[in-house]
Design brief:
heterodimer, A: alpha+beta, Uridine Diphospho-n-acetylenolpyruvylglucosamine Reductase, domain 2, Uridine Diphospho-n-acetylenolpyruvylglucosamine Reductase, domain 3, 3 domains, five-stranded antiparallel beta sheet, three-stranded parallel beta sheet, 11 helices, globular, B: alpha+beta, Ubiquitin-like (UB roll), DNA polymerase, domain 1, 5 strands, disordered C terminus
């Protein structure tokens, strides 16, 4: 493995000070399930220092406060998957966390790491984008809050500055009338990197008419976003088999529009349309 | 790169060592402490051969930096038996012929231990999920699943069927 200085700050403030002192040459270590692979990869550039925040207290809570759900960045996928709060207010987020890697990975990997690593296959990000999550970044200069929608520049690149530490992820609960779903396609059932995924939530009134829809595909677009073009097709309508299939095709067309036709499009286009339809069916059951 | 002093507990023993911070928990166990029961497989968190428990939870020791177990409790396959007496789980693996070449066995045992410690009456699906991060290239999964299920049944005999414990899953 690469050589680096190992720093173990005693608080988030100390962690921010360490990041500032390293002037962009440090990497933050939380669960380590992504960073250790990188530290071991021969061709990757070694960081000068690793700032280990995995032992910091108070950053692994899941709580409801002032009508919002707040996640500490050190919440593990395992904790999120079994959280009653997450399941009640954003079931698709708990399902996405349960779909990450393996039990061993879920016991270590964190939701903060999933966001900050910004891999296209990150499973918890599509539901967090659908939820309109707000990210609080802290540095020695103070705190700022960013909407997750504008947070990602491109795969593996975020708008966080090198001296900033993600300290909180907050979102409003889905409406009580909403149902949500996360579907994922990997090359096998266990330990699979997402080839494609879809996070969807649909709220309907008593007559079954859609009052709100959110659709975010994963590993499909250069950066994650809600597909408003497809969501609008559902609004004010009663979902039918034909409508859900048409919405799926629209999401697929949006993907092709954004990425162009690639070698994988032949496969991805029909598969994404089906995944969207399945996610929506699960929401409308 | 300076070495760092690490205080941790491995299989109930307090351990204090000087270690280079770019060593993994797997390196600490196998090379510094000579506990070679934990196997080095893929080193990318795919095969599960290096699975140990940290504070009672299964992790890939190849993906944990050694200094990250400061103040934590590590349990390896060497910590399962009581002296010469195998644990019920280990005995069940032998009885069900769940050990073929044996390379995956320590990791399988540790994933199974995490499951049974927190979920004493698992369904077959629970068992399949619990070992989904462990590869057996002899493909002896059926015997492994039976061995874990049988160990759970025997342990719960004579006691009411329990659900998952409160603090964990």
């Amino acid at each position: 493995m690469k050589r680096f200085d190992y720093l173990r700050p005693a608080s988030a403030e100390e962690a921010c000070a360490a990041l500032a002192a390293q002037a962009g040459e440090a990497r933050v270590l939380a669960g380590g399930t992504d960073l250790l692979l990188e530290l071991r990869r021969a061709e990757a550039k070694a960081p000068r220092a690793v700032v280990d925040i995995s032992g910091l207290a108070g950053l692994d809570g899941i709580e409801e406060r002032d009508g919002a759900v707040r996640l500490g960045p050190l919440v593990t996928h395992a904790a999120l998957a079994r959280s009653a709060v997450a399941r009640r207010h954003a079931a698709f987020l708990a399902d996405a966390a349960a779909a990450v890697g393996s039990p061993q990975i879920r016991n270590r990997g964190t939701v903060g790491g999933n966001i900050m690593n910004a891999a296209t296959c990150a499973d918890t990000v599509p539901p967090l984008v659908a939820l309109g999550a707000r990210l609080t970044l802290r540095s020695s200069r103070g705190e700022r809050e960013l909407d997750i929608a504008g947070f990602f520049e491109k795969p593996y690149r975020t708008r966080a500055r090198p001296d900033e530490l993600l300290v909180s992820i907050a979102f409003d609960p889905l409406p009580p009338t909403a149902r949500s779903a996360f579907v994922k396609l990997g090359r096998r059932n266990a330990l699979a990197v997402s080839r494609l995924s879809v996070a969807a939530a649909v709220a309907r009134d008593a007559a079954g008419v859609v009052t709100e829809a959110r659709i975010v595909p994963g590993a499909a677009l250069p950066v994650w976003r809600r597909v408003g073009e497809a969501e609008a097709m559902l609004f004010g309508r009663k979902p039918s088999e034909a409508l859900l299939a048409a919405v799926g095709r629209t999401v697929s067309d949006v993907m092709i529009g954004a990425t162009g036709r690639r070698w994988s499009t032949e496969y991805k286009a029909p598969v994404l349309a089906v995944l969207v339809r399945r996610a929506l069916e699960a929401c409308c059951r | 790169m300076r070495t760092t002093t690490l205080h941790t507990t491995v299989d109930g023993r307090a351990v204090t060592v000087e270690i280079e911070p770019n060593r993994t928990l797997l390196d600490l166990l196998r090379e510094t402490l000579g506990l070679t029961g934990t196997k080095r497989g893929c080193e990318v968190g795919e095969c599960g051969a290096c699975t140990v428990l940290v504070d009672g939870m299964a992790v890939n020791s190849c993906l944990v930096l050694a200094p990250q177990v400061e103040g934590r409790r590590v349990t390896t396959v060497e910590g399962l038996a009581e002296g010469e007496t195998l644990s019920a789980l280990q005995a069940s693996f032998i009885e069900h012929e769940a050990v073929h070449c044996g390379f995956c066995t320590p990791g399988m045992l540790m994933s199974a231990k995490d499951l049974l410690d927190h979920h004493p009456s698992p369904t077959e699906q629970d068992i399949r999920v619990a070992i989904s991060g462990n590869l057996c290239r002899c493909s002896g999964y059926v015997q492994i699943i039976e061995a874990i299920g049988d160990a759970a049944k025997r342990a719960s005999k004579g006691r009411p069927r329990a659900g998952p414990t409160e603090e964990h899953r």
